[in-house]
Design brief:
three-stranded antiparallel sheet, 6 helices, six-stranded antiparallel sheet, alpha+beta
């Protein structure tokens, strides 16, 4: 075995144990869920038994994770630099594990539009947290104030718009693939306000 294979083998064994402990399960409980003997599971965790693909699939299922996540190798690219869109006052970071998702940091200085015709609806979900200031979220006829350290999550099929209240605010938003697509192609005047 190569050093990389040995390292991955040890990492997978540590993950199995860590996930079991995080669930609060004993060896006996996980063994029962995975339909393996307690001694087999103990030997897998301790490196005394070879890792077999069929057992890893069963253990991943029992631990409510995927085989990919269980055997994922440590990435050298841990730090992600933002893509800066100065014209819209945005910073964007892709989420590597979920290629369709994007994290956006945005500073807003304008209130949401008074004209409800400027509210948008499109497929997807959005989640945002206010980092500083106060944001106003217009959501399907409701006007919601979101204070610093509060968050909002909503389906973007509801007509929505967002802006600041009483001064600048800064938000951090997470957009799924559909919500991100719904914001592509917006003009610079609407992009910061359309949630």
């Amino acid at each position: 075995m190569t050093q990389d294979t040995d390292d991955l083998d040890g990492l997978v064994r540590k993950r199995i144990r860590a996930l079991r402990v995080a669930q609060g399960w004993s060896l006996e409980e996980l063994a029962a869920r995975a339909k393996v003997s307690q001694s087999t599971l103990s030997r897998i965790e301790n490196g005394q038994r070879r890792l077999a693909l069929d057992q890893l699939v069963t253990l991943a299922r029992a631990l409510d994770t995927s085989l990919d996540q269980l055997v994922e190798n440590a990435s050298d690219d841990v730090i992600i630099s933002p893509m800066i869109d100065a014209s819209h006052g945005l910073m964007r970071w892709p989420i590597r594990a979920e290629p369709g998702m994007t994290v956006v940091r945005q500073r807003m200085t304008e209130p949401p539009p008074e004209n409800t015709a400027r509210m948008r609806a499109h497929p997807g979900r959005e989640w945002l947290v206010v980092l500083s200031g106060t944001a106003v979220l217009l959501l399907a006829g409701r006007r919601l104030r979101i204070e610093t350290n509060q968050a909002a999550e909503f389906p973007t099929m509801l007509p929505h718009a967002i802006g600041s209240a009483g001064g600048p605010c800064e938000i951090l938003g997470i957009f799924d693939r559909d919500a991100r697509r719904g914001h592509q192609g917006t003009d610079s005047a609407q992009a910061p306000k359309s949630g």
